[in-house]
């Protein structure tokens, strides 16, 4: 069996024959010319070297399928991963109560099936809250980790290939929770959400929470005004004032390490307003702040170093520390591109944020609206748009082979737009061209933008 990891955590175990079955089903539905080549069957027992070679081929195959907009978004592929997740975790299909957090700490309890996918759970939560159907797409479910002081650390946005109940219970840790938050970046979309009472309440609760956690910067005078609006229960005015404050609508990440402006700097990264904001502590303890605009990132990649456990087979899966890095190539000045690297366990979540910002920019540029960005059910089947259908967060496979190197450099490719070939790269790292995902928003940049 091969282990499939998502964001460094074991998602499911599958056999070669199951993956072959998936491949044949995809070929039947989409044609042999669309589906990537599959590692061939072997008549004789595989040697350890051949086992490793097959694992690498299967990993490439799974990543290629996941990144194809048609195959990766297909119900065939996603239902295969959901079913495998449920079987691996040995959770039978039954009715359960799932607790979903709101930003103000309130808990919404929904009765669902253990086999319900992310979309179903989101709709169940919306229904319980009386959130109208046309606003459901403005929100998403996120997996978070609650720290001892009550702060939240974002792990990832729940994807369409997983079962939220299974994802959270299989971690066997009560610190992990599922939370409902808005999932767009442009604050002009707040107007749509505020038209409805429940949307307004959810947005208000999230804004209050972000201010309390210090994510949104408030000076004394602004704090006094906000307090006054809160006492009058003027929710819309409260949000309008908050929209003018620094870091409104940003997602704040845990402290991590960056190589900008020099190696080993401690940094707090926030994502929002089509940028990554850096608050860097330099070696001389000086704090510097700067922002990297998403439109000036030519491409980016996520890489992970996965330590392979050669210890006893009893060691628990999914517990080994995975070192994740997000690197992006940035247009520093008219003719100068530079790579900037962030080393953080939240690198995949950062990449998801970058991708969804680009998607939102592209939808606006093409004259689309946010309502069109979200998935819709068509004839009972889920149809995904190019945008909010989440970043293609591919599974990573490994096989239990003791002869492997203790560290394997694996590239975790995340993209929801098709890959551009990147021909010239100033990066010294030996990562192939298709480990990147190009940024279409970058292509429109002109001299006046500099």
From TrEMBL:
GO MF terms held by the record: phosphatidylinositol binding
Membrane-spanning segments: none
Cellular-component GO terms for this entry: cytoplasmic vesicle membrane; early endosome
Family: Belongs to the sorting nexin family.
Classification of source organism: Eukaryota, Metazoa, Chordata, Craniata, Vertebrata
Gene3D superfamilies in UniProt: 1.20.80.60, Phosphatidylinositol 3-kinase Catalytic Subunit, Chain A, domain 1, Phox-like domain, Pleckstrin-homology domain (PH domain)/Phosphotyrosine-binding domain (PTB)
Composition skew (Polar residues), residue ranges: 416-429
Membrane topology: Peripheral membrane protein
Organism in which the protein naturally occurs: Anhinga anhinga (Anhinga)
Predominant location: membrane
Keyword Transport: yes
Keyword line: Cytoplasm, Cytoplasmic vesicle, Endosome, Lipid-binding, Membrane, Protein transport, Transport
Boundaries of every PX domain copy: 1-88
Region listing for Disordered, in residue ranges: 381-410, 416-435
Entry's localization field: Cytoplasmic vesicle membrane; Early endosome
SUPFAM superfamilies for this protein: PX domain (SSF64268)
Protein name, as recorded: Sorting nexin-17
InterPro entries assigned: PH-like_dom_sf, PX_dom, PX_dom_sf, RA_dom, SNX17-31_FERM_F1, SNX17-31_FERM_F2, SNX17/31_FERM, SNX17_FERM-like_dom
Biological role: Critical regulator of endosomal recycling of numerous surface proteins, including integrins, signaling receptor and channels. Binds to NPxY sequences in the cytoplasmic tails of target cargos. Associates with retriever and CCC complexes to prevent lysosomal degradation and promote cell surface recycling of numerous cargos such as integrins ITGB1, ITGB5 and their associated alpha subunits. Also required for maintenance of normal cell surface levels of APP and LRP1. Interacts with membranes containing phosphatidylinositol 3-phosphate (PtdIns(3P)).
Ras-associating domain: residues covered: 94-185
A biological process term (GO) from this entry: endocytic recycling
One Pfam family it belongs to: SNX17-31_F2_FERM
Range of residues in the leader sequence: none
